[in-house]
Amino acid sequence: MYTHLVKHMVCGRCVLMVEQTLETLEIQDAEVSLGKIELQQPIEPQLADQLHTVLAALGLEMMQGRSNRLIQNIKEAVGEFLHLGIDAQGQKLSTFIARRLGYEFGHLSEKFAKAEGTTVEHYFLDLRIQKVQELLRTTNLTLNDIAFETGFSSVHHLADQFKKFKGFTPG
Known about the structure:
Blueprint: E1 2-7, H1 12-24, E2 30-33, E3 36-39, H2 45-57, E4 61-62, H3 66-84, H4 93-101, H5 105-116, H6 120-138, H7 143-149, H8 155-166
Antiparallel strand pairs: 1-3, 1-4, 2-3
Helix pairs in contact: 3-4, 3-5, 3-6
């Protein structure tokens, strides 16, 4: 069960508005009560953003719990590691995140997988591939330069990972 706390949800009318919002966004298997939405499964990040936006327009606010903050901190650490590019080659993603957040990586990885439905490593690779696509669209960099910029050890490694994620090679 995935519980989301909702601030300012204080009456039955609020519950009805939240239920209608969930129905409109096609979020199923939800139980709504005062101050709380319980879901059977996690929702996609884009859909969660839409839910946050609609609830805010209704004067309600999704509260960030400690677990949600931890997941957000993991995502930020992954983004920082990606930003390091080739400079990150000397360290492991797991070590970087554990040191950055002050927890054992196994604990962080377990929490992340439970909340997001994917591993930290898969999330990182997905971000890298998105960055590759962005650089291909918006720059004139060569694949070699893009591989370097995104921390891949070679163009061959970049192409292999890209094909695994997208089903075709870049370029």
